[in-house]
Batch of 2 targets.
Target 1
Amino acid sequence: MVKKLSIFATFAAPLALMGTAVYAQGTAAPAAPAAEATAQVAVGATVYDSTGAEVGKVKSVAAPNFVIDTGKNTATLALSALGTSPKGPVLGLTREQLDTAAEKAAADAAAALASAIAVDAPVHASDGTTVIGKIAEVAEADFVLDTGSTKVKMPKTSVANGTNGLFIGLTAQAFAEATKSASPPSASK
């Protein structure tokens, strides 16, 4: 019997917080030491390109990275990619270049995740090392995870790629508790 979890939000919420990291390459003009740029970067600050055009706004800062919102995409960049100018922080990419890089990184990550969701692929708990089961079946929008003691139908959006392969946003203990109380799937798909 395959159980269908009714707590997918528990799995998906931590994964939704994970952004696609895009690291800027190139030089910001004029370049300044990373420590100086870091000290001047604050949430809400406008980031400019080398011509003075706006690239986006700083959404958050967590050294050694910051998150920038271009209005179209959100990307995580290294603070060391920033320089300074009289207007404020400067990035060596235009808004269009950053949007293109963010969209390519997101597409690459989605393709890598799609290929990783395959029969016999292990799925880890949130620690990235504890295997909670292996994928037994794959459908268009979901897969069946065989834990050894039960089979659980999960949406593909409930997993992400990590260093050791696929993982979910729950500890092994929380997953075991969640699957213990999972209701059987309805007869219709």
Note: The CA atoms of residues 45 and 128 lie 34 Å apart.
Target 2
Amino acid sequence: MNMSEEIQLIECPRDAMQGIHDFIDTDKKVAYINALLKCGFHTLDCGSFVSPKAIPQMKDTSAVLDKLDEGSGTKFSVIVANQRGASDAANHPRVDILGFPFSVSNDFQKRNTNASREEALDRVKEVKELCVKHDKELLIYLSMAFGNPYGEVWSEDIVAEWTMKMAALDIQLFMPSDTIGSSTPESITAVYSLLNKEFPKLQIGAHLHTTPTTWEEKLNAAWNNGCRRYDSALKGLGGCPMAKDDLTGNMPTERVLQFLEGKGVESGVDENAFLAAMQLAGKTFPQG
């Protein structure tokens, strides 16, 4: 296997769980995430510090984090949407990364966080200050990065414009996000070719949503344009509730591993631990 490629694989149990209506018991969440910890992923996106009214499934994130196994070397990432949630997350000793959903679509930003893009940028500044104070990393999810369903103008230049504004705040980590599964190889190519050219020192990953027939072409487009950090979820579970296609879910982790193997690139994921986590996913999720 080629060890020269620096690959960062982020497993997303939070994204897989958050849209499930029936509450998943805290201990069941802990057991599943602990199984994922044995796999050797770079990061686990494992919860949200947001209002329980907004995402009821994630109301026990703090309790889940408290019970997770120690010493794996895997980082823990959580979602925050305002200063209150960010403060709670920044003060939790197990949290390494605070993820903020920033939409390049003004309409979606209002729907998602009840704020305009400019107001959301002010929140980003507040969250960044908390991260600096508590020695945490700030991740910006650039939602609607590959298209817009609201009739607003979209282009890769708009994505780059907002990336530049937040990079000016000394934010290093960005995940362009395929919020409604609208990305195509062409839009993926346009976004990553521009961002990696304009911001060579930033870490720019990919949060792609796929169907069973589109995962490979999307991964190829991101890979061929320099992306080496990928969000995914076992079995492609989860995805945006707004997705119009019932088959549109998260990028399946097993497909990412298959893709890397085809490239001759070492993933760093333990195969036996991964198979065990796959089996447990079938018992943890209703659609697993």
Note: The chain has one domain: 8-284.
